[in-house]
Design goal:
- The complex is a heterodimer.
- By secondary structure, chain A is mostly helical.
- Chain A has helices spanning 8-33, 42-53, 55-84, 100-103, 105-128, 145-155, 157-184, 192-223, and strands at 134-137, 140-143.
- Helix content of chain A is 75%, strand content 4%.
- Chain A is globular.
- Chain B is of the alpha+beta class.
- In chain B, α5 (175-186) packs antiparallel against α7 (195-208) and α7 (195-208) packs across α9.
- Classes of the chains: A mainly alpha, B alpha+beta.
- Bound molecules: iron/sulfur cluster and FE2/S2 (inorganic) cluster.
- Iron/sulfur cluster (SF4) binds at residues 159-165, 176-177, 180, 224-226, 228 of chain B.
């Protein structure tokens, strides 16, 4: 057991577990974001305020951050070690059948990380450390997160492009990441490997498509 | 046919190698790739030049010696074929063919296209065996094996230890090879007894020998001359996880 944590399969196991955890988070994130598409924003504002203020989320937030950090650190370490396993490369690059995404997970992850930093400063930071306008709601008031989201996608066309790009990188990362996570924890055989690959694409299309749809929706709503 | 060859030449493990260009006329389309190399070497010898060193033995895809990386593919073009099964008809007249040795830290070049694949022997010594008293051939029905397991074990046993999986993998990972060996033995009654130790020891050895880890690109199964699939890697992961959690260490 003690050797497990430092073994190649053990390290991949952590990539897989943190990846699965982050994929679950993406589903929750998308579910809440989809409320942006309904009504005048009240629904989304209530949900966003609930998520940023309830005590359970205070516990989950650091766990989520840890999930990201571990996933990134392990990725860096594994990639470095794997690079070292072939000090001299080939003259003719490999023509072996393997998906582009599977061979470029680290690059895709890096691009998603850049996007993530921008994304966090755009929204999470502002909501968390309170520079968001408030609007009256019932007896109290709510942070107008809807206004923040709509504002960014309305004023800055670049943000729309950026968020759609981010979704494309995420799509590619997930097409490999989803089934690969299950393969690593041992769920795969001659039937299920193929099935998981198909589910991978369905999951990636739903998640990345969903996230890309939001800036598109605001573009169409305000600009066209 | 006439072909151009671009072949890696390296004196030994200590010197730096480089690509050497050769032009070869009168190649027969029905020649095997290895016959073509023999033909080249004969020509080089008569010209007083040094022949190209490469490894081969059985010429029938069972020994795993013919480790050549041809035009970006370990074992050259074609599915489920070893280099010794490749024929010159798979190439076009006038084509340039680049031939390289397996590239991996754990498979250092000995000379030209020959690499030292002793790392695979070390992996086998770490657990790729069954330590039972061999004695006489047992009675056919003494050990019952179900048909499904027997077929799977047979599929895994087809691995010839050629190392193409390592050569194809961007991480130079030996996981497919180890997966084939671990699975084959774990599926059979004689091998089950030591299955946990075997999985633990072979994976530890694989890491120690400097092979990379598996990132599930699937390049290995695409190039394996014996069609070993990555479902065996999932099985290895299963075996290894269970062994790690259950064995006291
Ligand atoms: S798994 Fe396939 S490619 Fe790898 S050593 Fe065995 S036969 Fe060769
Ligand atoms: S020479 Fe034996 S496998 Fe090709």
């Amino acid at each position: 057991m003690s050797k497990f944590f430092t073994s190649s399969i053990g390290q991949k196991f952590f990539m897989s577990i943190t990846g699965l955890f982050l994929m679950m988070f993406l589903m929750v994130h998308l579910t809440i974001n989809s409320l942006l598409l309904f009504g005048d924003g009240e629904l989304f504002n209530v949900a966003a305020n609930f998520m940023s203020s309830n005590p359970i989320m205070k516990v989950i937030e650091p766990i989520l951050a840890l999930g990201f950090i571990l996933h990134i650190i392990y990725a860096g370490y594994i990639t470095l070690k794997n690079k070292m396993a072939r000090p001299q490369g080939y003259k003719v690059a490999s023509k072996s059948e393997a998906s582009w995404a599977s061979k470029n997970m680290f690059i895709l992850g890096g691009l998603i990380l850049i996007f993530l930093v921008i994304h966090i400063t755009n929204f999470f930071w502002k909501v968390k450390f309170g520079t968001v306008a408030t609007i009256p709601y019932g007896d109290g008031e709510l942070h107008d997160v809807y206004g923040l989201v709509a504002g960014i996608f309305k004023v800055w066309l670049w943000y729309d492009v950026l968020y759609i790009l981010g979704a494309i990188f995420l799509f590619l990362h997930l097409t490999h990441g989803f089934w690969s996570a299950f393969q690593t924890i041992g769920w795969g055989n001659e039937k299920w490997t193929l099935r998981l690959k198909v589910v991978s694409y369905i999951y990636a299309i739903i998640v990345a498509g969903g996230f890309a749809f939001i800036p598109l929706y605001f573009l169409i709503k305000y600009i066209v | 046919m006439k072909i151009k060859l671009n072949i890696w030449k390296q004196e030994n493990g200590k010197t730096k190698g480089k690509f050497e260009k050769y032009e070869l006329d009168g190649v027969d389309a029905e020649m095997s790739f290895l016959e073509m190399l023999d033909y080249l070497n004969e020509k080089l010898i008569t010209e007083g030049k040094e022949p190209v060193a490469y490894e081969h033995d059985c010429h029938e895809a069972i020994c795993g010696c013919c480790s050549l990386y041809i035009n970006g593919h370990p074992h050259g073009p074609g599915k489920e074929t070893a280099t010794c099964q490749v024929h010159m008809r798979s190439f076009k007249d006038g084509e340039t063919i680049t031939v390289e040795p397996w590239r991996a830290k754990s498979f250092p070049v000995l000379k030209d296209l020959m690499t030292d694949r002793n790392a695979f022997d070390k992996l086998m010594s770490a657990g790729g065996f069954v330590s039972i008293d061999a004695g006489q051939a047992p009675d056919a029905n003494a050990n019952l094996v179900g048909k499904i397991d027997a077929d799977k074990a047979f599929d895994a046993a087809a691995c010839i230890g050629c190392g193409a999986c390592v050569a194809a993998c961007k991480n130079s990972s030996a996981t497919l090879f180890v997966a084939a060996k671990v699975s084959q033995l774990a599926l059979l009654p004689q091998g089950k007894i030591e299955a946990k130790r075997r999985a633990l020891n072979m994976v530890a050895k694989m890491d120690e020998l400097g092979f990379g880890s598996c990132t599930n690109t699937g390049a290995c199964e695409a190039e394996c001359p014996k069609g070993i699939g990555i479902d065996f890697i999932a099985k290895l992961n299963r075996e290894y996880l269970c062994a790690s959690f259950s064995e006291a260490e």
